[in-house]
């Protein structure tokens, strides 16, 4: 029940204050499970601008705390991926089983499973006890109703983002869009933004407007889930006689001010949904109109777990996610070009490129180890 003696062990450290800088640490032998432990070997993981956001908020939001390195100034960037059990001393978790979950960029992860069920387990390591439990859960693929072996790359690219999209769409709908008849999305080319638009595109009486750069406008228009689009420099052409909800995926303070000042009384709600471009928290600003409100998906998940029960929430999410992935992976729609890269050095290069903004919204990056 142990890993091969000659299995290599590698882990990628990221400089906490210069996210484009990383270094690779290697050891000759992979770890072996001690009593009460399992070792998982990471097989593949996705890299998106969302991972850069996680790292940028690493200290403030405790993302660095999930996988401490023990080395001052260096962190383990968390990613979503699939891993296989290579060593286990825990009853109910067998070598060879495959799990989906939250991992460091490392070939292997040592965990202390608790609450082991057919569905999976939680990592009970002491340092994770005070952290958000959703990130500590590892799902056994054989018990995951949404799992399809042929769609693993799409699942790790979109599932962590689409849960935000799905629950954001639900949150806005649950609140009757705060009286808005138009939603304006900044960074409309981002996967989380267009996932939200996908969920809301057929809502009667609601117009979805994409706010995007000139360079990304053709891509955004081609998605077909927004009803219209406006470039940032043409923000002033937006009509100001329609009750409007601003869905902010950019985090750009200057843009937020322009939106508030242009829309005036037409702006009924400002929803800050997170950002990859700007990793600063919302600052207290003297803005006209409604104060920006931070949206946090776990809050809406908890509400819907209470309203519907966790089983119904999971069923609804899985169905919506499958519809979305089936749409995304259809080449004729032109939503995604899947780019699969191999090894830790490829991960280093891709992280640097994401940090520098050298990406196209159509591309999705998966690293295989």
Tell me about this structure.
By secondary structure, the protein is an alpha/beta fold. It has two domains: 9-144 and 337-368, Medium-chain alcohol dehydrogenases, catalytic domain (Quinone Oxidoreductase, Chain A, domain 1), CATH 3.90.180.10; 160-299, NAD(P)-binding Rossmann-like Domain (Rossmann fold, 3-Layer(aba) Sandwich). It has eight helices and 18 strands. It has helices at residues 49-56, 152-174, 191-200, 217-223, 253-263, 297-308, 310-328, 344-356; strands spanning 9-15, 22-27, 38-47, 74-75, 78-88, 98-104, 108-111, 113-117, 120-123, 137-140, 182-185, 207-212, 228-231, 244-248, 267-272, 293-294, 337-342, 363-368. The strands form three sheets. Strands 3, 5, 6, 7, 8, 9, 10, 17 and 18 form a nine-stranded mixed beta sheet that branches. InterPro entries: DUF2855. This is DUF2855 domain-containing protein.
Descriptors:
globular, 369 residues, 18 strands, alpha/beta, disordered N terminus, Rossmann fold, 27% strand, 6-stranded parallel sheet, single chain, DUF2855, Quinone Oxidoreductase, Chain A, domain 1, 8 helices, 9-stranded mixed sheet
What is the domain tally?
Answer: 2
> Compute the gyration radius: what is it?
21 Å
Helix content: 25-40%
What is the CATH homology-level superfamily of the largest domain? Medium-chain alcohol dehydrogenases, catalytic domain
**Main CATH class of the largest domain:** Alpha Beta
Largest sheet: 9 strands, mixed
Protein name: DUF2855 domain-containing protein
InterPro entries: DUF2855 (IPR021276)
Organism: Ralstonia flaminis
Pfam families: DUF2855
